[in-house]
Amino acid sequence: MSTKEELRSRVNEFRAHREEREQEKLINAEFHGISYSAEHRPENLRLLRAFFNATQDDFAALLGIIGQSLYSQYERGLRELETIDARRIEQSLNIPEKWLDRKNSNSLFLSQDEQSLVNEIRAVNSAAILILAKAVRILSNRD
Residue 130: CB partners within 8 Å, gap ≥ 6? Predict the structure, then answer.
């Protein structure tokens, strides 16, 4: 096998492995009550813009989107923000990957693991929640 063929083979193996890991993450997230969908992107763009207290024009410039009009279409859901652009925005704002694809109205900047933990805690009874809160205070030396 030539060097080019070996390299292509390795790249394909890497891509397949990465896709498997992504699928495992999604399955794990779904198990913990986190679902991902591009339909959440418009609402999340509005949340981010409100967080930054920015106009559409200023926020579009911050994100590197050409023009307020295009940004407005993304924010209103009239035009779909492509996945590659969503990941680029997340990276540029240093927010968790796939943050734009999940419902964030109650948990702005939690990672997938943190959101999973929140969902698990919500699923248990109130006595267990009090015990967990006490344990966290003890572990963080606040008690």
Answer: none
Q: Give the tens place of pLDDT for each residue, 33-47.
A: 567 789 999 999 999
**What does the H/E/C string look like for the chain?**
CCHHHHHHHHHHHHHHHHHHHHHHHHHHHHHCCCCCCHHHHHHHHHHHHHHCCCCHHHHHHHHCCCCHHHHHHHHCCCCCCCHHHHHHHHHHHCCCCCHHHCCCCCCCCCCHHHHHHHHHHHHCCHHHHHHHHHHHHHHCCCC
Give the integer Cα–Cα distance in Å for 72 and 124: 40
Give the pTM: 0.57
Cα-atom radius of gyration of the chain, to the nearest Å?
20
66 contacts 38 by C-beta, under 8 angstroms:
no
Of 50, 48, 55, 118, whose CA–CA distance to 90 is shortest?
48
CATH dotted code for 32-139: 1.10.260.40
pLDDT digits (tens, 9 = 90+) for 44-77: 999 999 888 899 999 999 998 888 999 999 999 9
